[in-house]
Design a protein that fits this description.
two-stranded antiparallel ribbon, six-stranded mixed beta sheet, 6 helices, single chain, Peptide Methionine Sulfoxide Reductase, Chain A, alpha+beta, about 180 residues, 8 strands
Amino acid sequence: MKSSLEKATFGGGCFWCTEAIFKELKGVDRVVPGYIGGDAPGRPTYREVCSGLTGHAEAIEVHFKPAVISYNDILTIFMTTHDPTTLNRQGADVGTQYRSAIFYHSPEQKEIAEIVIKELGAFFDDKIVTEITEASTFYEAEDNHHDYYNKNKQQGYCNAVISPKLTKFRKVYASFLK
């Protein structure tokens, strides 16, 4: 029998933004911020990942119920709530740690990611540069990065970057919200 929860892992710039978005979706059980895709030895820290020297991306691990929300829908939401056309950058955040990436957990997820990127390509002026890579070890971020937006809404970055992104997301994806 197939597990009632599946996992999707994405890097879409700052994990505070992506976590805030995915926490609001029906069928999402939990969202974990962390680091993936690097080659530095040992468990990376936020400071190390931000240096750009570990090769890791800031990412989120989304645990979801495919009976409620499909991987295809999760991917579409991911691809349309960040800029998948900028290499190693999201807004003012620059470096490989902010790259657009899909870390797949099965051959089916890889295939769906390739299809979604191909389909969405026509809706962007520039070429999609999102990497599709097999998931490696995911390192959970330090506790102070969990639920960051909800705990720090008045902080400058949250106010200027995350709040407007959430407002737009809530309008476009209202039918998917909890």
